[in-house]
Amino acid sequence: xxxxxxxxxxxxxxxxxxxxxxxxxxLAAVADDAVKALLxxxxxxxxxxxxxxxxxxxxxxxxxRTLYHENRLSRDxxxxxxxxxxxxxxxxxxxxxxLGFDNHRTGRNxxxxxxxxxxxxxxxxxxxxxxxxxxxxxxxxGGEMAMPSAEAVVAKLGKIDGYEALFxxxxxxSKPAITYDNVGNAIGAYERLFVTPGRFDQLLAGxxxxxxxxxxxxLKKFVSIGCVACHTGNLLGGNAYQKLGVQKPWPNQKDQGxxxxxxxxxxxxxxxxxSLRNIAKTGPxxxxxxxxxxxDAVQRMAAHQLGKDLSKEDRADIVAFLRSxxxxxxxxxxxxxxxxxxx
Length: 343
Ligand code: HEC
Ligand code: HEC
Hints:
Layout: H1 7-22, H2 28-38, H3 55-68, H4 81-84, H5 131-140, H6 150-159, H7 163-170, H8 180-191, H9 199-204, H10 215-225, E1 241-243, H11 258-262, E2 270-272, H12 294-306, H13 312-323, H14 331-334
Antiparallel strand pairs: 1-2
Helix pairs in contact: 1-2, 1-10, 3-7, 3-8, 5-8, 10-13, 12-13
The structure holds heme C (2 copies).
């Protein structure tokens, strides 16, 4: 493992080993301190996003909400962003591969749109820098929403009674107001509210009792076994690219991840380390959707990334910890628009 992990990550793991060992001492106070000593690597707690008060910012978010749930952004008016990234379903659809235009299945598993704007980049291979840029991809992707061109999207929205006014309110300085970039900008403004704090954030904020056993045991094992080397920061991931199959090759080599994008040998099988927020709710797992169950995903991670065969007990504890990472998107953000223009 050492040869492949960034030096900083190894240092973090080593410095964390000592408190982990202390954690097995019987005194509750010592245990609390041991847990606290593990937390700096996870950074600051997430805080829920609020709908903006500023009128223009609010108009952008509301336009974004409408577009995110808008089926008419697809060629046959049947698919929206929400079809594959449900705001009431933790930003996913629960499918191994999602259903796009004309019964086409996506080539990769749909990652969650929740908390995604905080990642270092978007997509499994990081090919879009921001959620605003990302949003312009699927609308034109043949196997997803399949609109023929950016111009066709702008023309279609322009013909629907009411969209012109919504774009003008959201982008008062933009002439014309309806542009393909503004479609991405509005959807991005909405997605930037997709923050899902939960009990783990209470722990990060200093409430030692926010997690219980076996979740705390799982947290210690997550750190001591080495998961945290890649799944770090307050999203437990989303901030680095790493090789899938560091210790043992991943069985499915069809998709080479970042290599397919950069053509650099060093990028073979490199994928963005996914965030583990809400992970209990976002299966199937991996870019190829090859694990249905979290238990299986954890076992395979230990084997392929760390060269370890987890005991049943270690696996159960880590899964209990991962289940504690389920948060919630506030209802006022998850809700679809009250009405769609022209309907
Ligand atoms: C047919 C299903 C489908 C539709 C419709 C769809 N997506 Fe996706 N989305 C995916 C898949 C599959 C990926 C991963 C593709 C990849 O990494 O190559 C993805 C990736 C993403 C990501 C990146 C998340 C991450 O962790 O990297 C975001 C954000 C996202 N989609 C938002 C949207 C938005 C906004 C729309 C509407 C404009 C949309 N999606 C429409 C299937 C879909
Ligand atoms: C060397 C870096 C590394 C280590 C160590 C590591 N992971 Fe991962 N993890 C990744 C990468 C990269 C992916 C994305 C793989 C893909 O492309 O499907 C991933 C994916 C996952 C997923 C699936 C996420 C999803 O949304 O589909 C889970 C769950 C997971 N890891 C948990 C763990 C656990 C638990 C450990 C410790 C036993 C661990 N990981 C150790 C890099 C790592």
